[in-house]
Design goal:
Protein name: Voltage-dependent calcium channel gamma-like subunit
Number of helices: 5
Helix content: 55-70%
Pfam families: TMEM37
InterPro entries: Tmem37
Structural class: alpha+beta
Distance between the termini: 30 Å
Strand order of the largest sheet: 1-2-3-4
Keywords: Membrane, Transmembrane, Transmembrane helix
Amino acid sequence: MTAIAVQAQRLLAQRRPRRPFFESFIRTLIIVCAALAVVLSSVSICDGHWLLAEDRLFGLWHFCTTSNQTRPHCLRDLSQAHVPGLALGMVLARSVSALAVVAAIFGLELLMVSQVCEDLYSRRKWALGSFLLLISFILSFGGLLSFVILLRNQVTLIGFTLMFWCEFTASFLFFLNAISGLHINSITHPWGQPRKF
């Protein structure tokens, strides 16, 4: 009887406790929202047209002039927009924004791996993924801020395009998911360790 009891205890000890539904739901929601933020930010940066000021369209990659009779005439040379420091400043804005997407992709990958392959390092992977999302927020917000500062004389609230607001929403989601991920990691129990009462 003793040998059977020992075998039963070993089998029960090897079984991993299941995570509560609410915790799994919150972690899944964080991953889905982070993925949505990556998509929004990627589309916004690739399109790059963020500000419409009268008959001029300013973007990360192009400067366009529009009129009622003709199609938009776009130029890659941003110095022709006659805005001081625009060409050099846009290099900084688009580089920082692109780095934000790269950091977010790696952060999202770590979040997903920590949930799919649960091991002793799952919590560390989750924390590192959340930290990378926080870095993504800082970088994407820096890109938005530098764009607005460069074009401060042309900026109006209704002049911002849908792509600008997509990047703004993505930046907010990076922040929200990073803080939520770090918080849920700090308040939940590490499942690989026994509970102390």
